[in-house]
Amino acid sequence: MIDKHIADVPSRIWEEGRPPKARVWDAEFNVAGWIKVSGATGEVSLMVLHEDEAGEHVSLVDRTSIAGDGSSLMSGLIRMRFTGSVSKVQVMLRLSDPAMRFQVDELFVQRRGNALRRQDKLISNY
């Protein structure tokens, strides 16, 4: 398995709605991306990784099997628990074969319950 960093999620997205002075808080996010894969067959997973004072955490957004060159809409709702200060929130792809090549055409991370805004779009034609 090969992990590939796709994008850093800006703090304005994951901090929005944080209770004031809360040391531990939960948040739900809608995550979606159009992923093109070529070069090999296998499994692709879309994940969100975050690191805070409690350590590193990985949330699986979606998983798909690739049988040839093509595109896939990968999406899901994830729940993340944050503890203390947060050092990073990143969107990652996990590829089962190192020969896989990928392109991310669209990528969104949006806090559940919020209206989708232009700034929630992280990537276009990556």
Describe this structure in words.
The protein has 126 residues and is mainly beta. The protein has one domain: Galactose-binding domain-like (Jelly Rolls), CATH 2.60.120.260. Helix content is 3%, strand content 67%. The chain has one helix spanning 11-14, and strands at 2-8, 24-38, 42-52, 55-66, 70-83, 86-95, 101-111, 121-124. Strands 1-6-3-4 form a four-stranded antiparallel β-sheet, with no helix packed on it. β3 and β4 (55-66) form a beta hairpin. The longest helix is centred in the first third of the chain and has 4 residues, at 11-14. The chain is elongated. The two termini are 21 Å apart. The model has no long low-confidence stretch (mean pLDDT 88).
Short description:
The protein has one helix and eight strands, in the order βαβββββββ. The protein is mainly β and 126 residues long.
Features:
single chain; 126 residues; Jelly Rolls; four-stranded antiparallel β-sheet; 1 helix; 8 strands; 67% strand; elongated
Spatial extent as radius of gyration = 15 Å
Under the CATH scheme, the architecture is Sandwich
Number of helices: 1
Please write the string of helix (H) and strand (E) elements: EHEEEEEEE
Number of domains: 1
Q: Report how far the terminal alpha carbons are from each other.
A: 21 Å
Assigned CATH class: Mainly Beta
> Biggest sheet, strands in spatial order?
1-6-3-4
Biggest sheet statistics:
4 strands, antiparallel
Low-pLDDT stretches: none
